Structure formats: structure tokens, C-alpha cells
Amino acid sequence: MKFNKVLKNVPLYEAGKPIELVTREYGISPKDVVKLASNENPYGTSPKVVKKIQDIAKDMFKYPDDSMYELKEALASKYEVESNNIVIGSGSDQILEFAIHAKCNKKSKVLMAKTTFAMYEIYAKQTGAEIIKTKSSQHNLKEFKKLYKKHNPDIIFLCIPNNPLGECLDKVEVYEFLESVDKDTLVIIDGAYMEYAAYKDINKKISPKDLINTFPNAIYLGTFSKAYALGGMRVGYGVANPEIIQNLYKLRAPFNITTLSLAAAIEALKDEEFVNDCIDKNFKQMKRFEKYCNDNNFEYIPSYTNFITILFKNFISKQVAQKLLERGMIIRDLTGYGLNAIRVTIGTTTQNTKFFKLLNEVLEELK
């Protein structure tokens, strides 16, 4: 059977291993498995959201409101924009897909950092577009500017903060770069972890309203999967000028999020106290990881997210990740990104204590 030729060069996205798989493969009880691989909020979902879902579960046979009026109005109020500035997706990665397919073809070029969210490249290659990457793993805007001038790409991806590394550009330097970008180039600001970055350092905060008013060729992406703890509900959104939004809507299938997902996102926006509490706990726990790395002379990337990247010199990250997996600790090996490093979600106090204990065991075994 023949398929589209561009698919030959499209890599598969490798998601973090589920707890169920580790239970089956290694015979470890689910209660003894800790997953710190997918940057989920370890404190669970807001109790108010859980109650809302329980209350409306009986309505799951109904299609959702496809206008998504209430959610879009809530987001419009939060960001001080209009509802026609917003598109809703099944996770923010679906908005990525819309944007790339709206803008790219086999003659297109897409610019991104060397090490960043894998779906940028995957979606771009689905259209046959050429991928242009910086030499630096982390976002280096001097390199971005040089490559932009050389290749004139159709789309530029800036992951702020960056996944899977955790570094974050300042708003000022982002804006300075965007001033040099042609207005026909679509700039995608992926703010999946922006709530964390803004909490840690106000200089990192990019306001969707200010962004799209200053740069009409930009789109801001947000998600409910991280700080709002709705990873299993798959709700994301894009904020941009109406022309961009209208074109993305032409690619959106009807009812692209569920009745329960829609209700969960609406309710989650009402409980900012829960979100801020989770973020505060995240950075308190992150200090333990930084201290552990400093005490053990491990290099790490200062993180503005809910995860941390630890780089190894005397150990092989793939072996470390596998040994941890065999002990029921799921983390992310970054070998596939060309790095001898692991990415670890910042968990609860108990989860992190277990991680440090098991990592010590593994490192001692691998000496």
C-alpha cells in the first residue's frame, strides 16, 4: 500500500511510559510506581473541578457546546482579549497542528531550537516542510536571527519556557527579536509552562494581549495540562488576531474536545488559588533538586517549569533511566534529543524523597 511520501521522514512521538506498562513489565505494584516523566501536576486536579465532573458525568452522552462560548469568554476575560481571538484545541499541540497545516507545504521552512518540543518537527514534517534548527540546544536568539535572515521561514517556534530543557527567555529579548521578523512569518509562542515562569520571574511573563497587539503575526499557546492539572482532559488554546484564528478554525473538526473536558477547563479557571498553591509547592520542591545536584556535582539547567533537566558526565543517562524504571521510578531519558541527561518532573515531597533514594542506589550500582 502506498502512503504519502513525506511520512517516511516523520518520527514517532515517544510519550512517557505509563504506570500500567511498568506494572506489567516489571511486576511492580501500581502503588509502588512513581511517574515523574510527563510533567503532570503531582498534586492532582482541583477538588472543585473533580466535583463539577462528578455532577455532570450523567451528561456525557451529549455533545459539547461546539461554540465553546463559556470557556472562550472565561479565557477572554482572563487575558483581556475578545472571544474571537481564541481557538480551543485538544491540548495546545492540536493548535500547533492547525497552525502548521494552515501555513506550510512542501516548499515551506520552519525554524526552531535544536532541543525543544518534539511535536513542532513532527507536525512540520507531515506537510513536507524543511526543518531549520539552531546549533545551540537552548534558545539562542542571535542564532535564530541569523537563521531567520538566511532562510526566511514561514513559521518560527519559540517555546517559553522550553520543554524539555526548562530554560526561559526574557520577554524583552523575545520582543526585540520579533521586531526583526517579517509580518508574513507566523511566530508561535508556546506558553505551556508560562504560569510557572511568570510565578518565578515576572521578567519572563508574556501577556497574550500585549503580544498579539504588538505583533499581529504571533499566536500564543496555552494549556490546561500542566499548572491546571488537566492533562487527562486534553484542553489547550491559542490566542491570536481574528484573521489567524479564523483560518485555524477551518482545520478544526467539530466537537474537538469533550463535554467533560470543556466543563473541567471552565471550572479550573475559577480556582486560581489551587493553581498558585501548586506552583508555589513546585518551586519549593525544586530547591531540593538543585541542592541535590550541587551536593553531587551534577550540572543542571535552571528551570522555570515543573521539571528539571540533570546532565551527566560520569554516567550514561539511558542506563540511569532504565535502572530507575526497574525500581518503579519513571523519568524521561533525553538520549533521543542528543543529550546525556534526564528530565525529572518535580513531584510531591514523598515522591521526590523516593527519587533521590533510588537515584543514589542506581548511581552507586553504576559506578
TrEMBL record:
Query: Which top EC class is given?
Result: transferase
> Is NADP there in the keyword field?
no
What cofactor is this protein dependent on? Answer: pyridoxal 5'-phosphate
| InterPro entries named in the record | Aminotrans_II_pyridoxalP_BS (IPR001917), Aminotransferase_I/II_large (IPR004839), HisP_aminotrans (IPR005861), HistidinolP_aminotransfase (IPR050106), PyrdxlP-dep_Trfase (IPR015424), PyrdxlP-dep_Trfase_major (IPR015421), PyrdxlP-dep_Trfase_small (IPR015422)
Question: What Enzyme Commission number(s) appear in the record?
Answer: 2.6.1.9
| Gene3D superfamilies recorded | Aspartate Aminotransferase, domain 1 (3.90.1150.10), Type I PLP-dependent aspartate aminotransferase-like (Major domain) (3.40.640.10)
Listed pathway(s): Amino-acid biosynthesis; L-histidine biosynthesis; L-histidine from 5-phospho-alpha-D-ribose 1-diphosphate: step 7/9
Reaction catalyzed: L-histidinol phosphate + 2-oxoglutarate = 3-(imidazol-4-yl)-2-oxopropyl phosphate + L-glutamate
Please list the residue ranges annotated as the Aminotransferase class I/classII large domain. Answer: 31-353
| Record key words, sorted | Amino-acid biosynthesis, Aminotransferase, Histidine biosynthesis, Pyridoxal phosphate, Transferase
- Indicate where the modification N6-(pyridoxal phosphate)lysine is found in the sequence: 226
GO MF terms listed in the record are:
histidinol-phosphate transaminase activity
Q: Which domain of life is it from?
A: Bacteria
Q: Tell me the subunit arrangement.
A: Homodimer.
Similarity comment text for this entry: Belongs to the class-II pyridoxal-phosphate-dependent aminotransferase family. Histidinol-phosphate aminotransferase subfamily.
Query: What is the name of this protein?
Result: Histidinol-phosphate aminotransferase
User: What is the scientific name of the source organism?
Assistant: Arcobacter porcinus
Q: Which gene is the coding source of this polypeptide chain?
A: hisC
